[in-house]
């Protein structure tokens, strides 16, 4: 079913627990907040189930994020699921929504997030552990509130460009002064379809261009990495392998980046 924002408040007030895939429009999140709904970000690993549970529904060449979303949708008690199928997500999300709508007894509601009012990117530019900041950014998709008391901007020594990884452990390899770019920055800004913002990077700092394996954004990650004067292109599937960790560690060390 397609979302009609005019009837959003009436519709969403019937629910108690919803799941989201991608970043639905702020109107959805705001209505959910106003009605005190529990929001589950289905893109994150939330249940202790094998990722192969998604195999009857999605092929393995789909990214681990969407396969994770399907596993969560199958095992969580939800009243509805809101999926961003606009340019801020991907066509695969649209196909996933179609499949889930057939497989589940609850509404699976397609949305198109075209929000263009920026909330700012203070966490992307702060001096804090990268893992903590990425966790805060991903948690922020469940709130429509503006940022209070943002942290000060730091001088960057490294860059992480890309989407939030399914396995956050890779983020522990980066220094606290790593700036975040790519779609993760669009997430914090609450403008997931802002392709100009997504394509920005800092050519003055060594940057890892990251994408989930089989994600369409691997093309943009590799393209921008070739344009950057000091870059590492990296794609990781479900878990961060020892090889991926070694590549990041060697890249940062050889770039003279202090831990």
User: Could you name the ranges where pLDDT drops below 50 across 5 or more consecutive residues?
Assistant: none
Q: Helical segment tally?
A: 9
What class would the helix/strand composition place it in? alpha/beta
Strand order of the largest sheet: 2-1-3-4
Distance between the termini: 48 Å
Rounded average pLDDT = 94
Give a short synopsis of this structure:
With 259 residues, the protein is of the alpha/beta class. It is built from nine helices and eight strands.
Indicate the topology.
Layout: H1 8-12, E1 17-21, H2 26-34, E2 38-41, H3 64-75, E3 80-84, H4 91-103, E4 108-111, H5 130-139, E5 158-162, E6 178-181, H6 183-189, H7 195-198, E7 207-212, H8 217-227, E8 231-236, H9 242-254
Parallel strand pairs: 1-2, 1-3, 3-4, 5-6, 5-7, 7-8
Question: Key features?
Answer:
about 260 residues, alpha/beta, 4-stranded parallel beta sheet, 9 helices, globular
What does this structure look like?
There is one protein chain. The chain is an alpha/beta fold and 259 residues long. Helix content is 32%, strand content 15%. The strands form 2 sheets. Strands 2-1-3-4 form a 4-stranded parallel sheet, with helices on both faces. A 4-stranded parallel sheet has the order 6-5-7-8, with helices on both faces. Strand 3 (80-84), helix 4 (91-103) and strand 4 (108-111) form a beta-alpha-beta unit. The chain is globular and about 55 Å long. The mean pLDDT is 94.
């Amino acid at each position: 079913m397609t979302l009609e924002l005019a009837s959003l408040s009436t519709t969403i007030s019937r629910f108690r627990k919803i799941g989201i895939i991608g970043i639905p429009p702020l109107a959805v999140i705001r209505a959910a907040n106003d009605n005190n709904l529990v929001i589950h970000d289905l893109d994150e690993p939330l249940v202790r189930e094998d990722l192969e549970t998604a195999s009857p529904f999605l092929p393995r060449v789909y990214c681990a994020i969407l396969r994770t979303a399907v596993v969560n949708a199958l095992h969580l008690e939800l009243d509805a699921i809101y999926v961003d199928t606009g340019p801020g997500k991907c066509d695969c999300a649209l196909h996933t929504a179609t499949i889930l709508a057939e497989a589940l007894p609850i509404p699976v509601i397609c949305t198109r997030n075209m929000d263009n009012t920026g909330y700012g990117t203070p966490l992307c530019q702060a001096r804090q552990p990268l893992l903590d900041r990425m966790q805060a950014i991903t948690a922020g998709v469940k709130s429509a509130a503006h940022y209070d008391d943002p942290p000060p901007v730091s001088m960057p020594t490294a860059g992480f460009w890309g989407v939030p990884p399914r396995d956050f452990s890779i983020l522990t390899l980066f220094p606290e002064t790593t700036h975040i770019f790519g779609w993760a920055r669009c997430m914090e800004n609450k403008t997931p379809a802002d392709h100009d913002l997504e394509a920005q990077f800092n050519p003055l700092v060594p940057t890892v261009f990251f994408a989930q394996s089989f994600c369409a954004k691997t093309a943009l990650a590799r393209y921008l990495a070739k344009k950057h004067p000091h870059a590492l292109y990296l794609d990781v599937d479900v878990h961060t392998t020892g090889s991926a960790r070694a590549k990041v560690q060697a890249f940062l060390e050889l770039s003279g980046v202090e831990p």
